[in-house]
Amino acid sequence: MALGYIVYVDVLLLYLIANFVCDYLLLWATAAVTLAKTNWRRLCAGAAIGTGHFLLLYLASLQIIPHYGLLRFIPTILAVTLLMLLTTFHPVSLRRLVKLALHFAGIGFGSGGIGLAAAYLLGTPHEPATFLGLLAAIAGILIIAELGWGVVQNSMIRRIYQLPISIHFGDEVIRVVGLLDTGNHLTDPLTGAPVIILEQDLLAGILPPDLAANINQLETGDEKALTQLLAASQWSSRFRIIPYSSLGSKNGILVGFRPDQVTLDVSGQSIPTGEAIVAICNHQLDTAGEYQALIPPSIVHGTLGEFSPAPAVARLQ
Known about the structure:
Helices cover 50% and strands 18% of the residues. By secondary structure, it is of the alpha+beta class.
């Protein structure tokens, strides 16, 4: 006697809609995290392919259509996934496709685990809360996408607002990574030149030992050190005093020197800036060591053209 199967259309439609929403969000989250270009039409097309595979698999599981084993075969699932990604993000290189697939799988496994755990925690082992698990999976996708986008934003900030710079003193060149700091509006009182803040240790190999000692004395308020600094014939013409105000120091001074040239290193090219002063900071600017100098926005404006700076992220302590 042949067995009959009852398929409730409303339940099947609910499953299809839920699967479409999940696939759409997975593709959207993949695009958000990887910054891949797509649009809502392509996202819908990619999700439709995934939902079509789910429909065939569902019907095959009820033995309404054949080839259940083939449809759940891992190479088949992988092929459907790649087709979804190609449809959503075409044109795409093989290397980019592999990266997209890894992100898609990672987000899918992560959110799926969240949904499965929620279904059994909120239900029972025999009757898991499927609908609540689905909502948890969707929430998981959104959370993972948001966290991933935060990582991307941080990476963009590092790439955009951290610039390699080269500072030339005669035959000596100091190459460091500088951070664009919108809070740095210091200028030389004599010439109006913008001021780059540089960690003092980077000048250790250039400045004479006695000159470095005089700088430390001057920063602590020893006025006699000023005379000794001016007496250093090789550096006296470069010497500058830069007044500044910051939290905890309303009338501070920085010792600065005029370099022969400052260049911004952009895309492998060294672009000379205008006149600038390099002021010495006696403490580490970034505890993580990602940058060693603070670049004023005016230097970037004048060198690279119009620039939209981020909120101030560094200050003199």
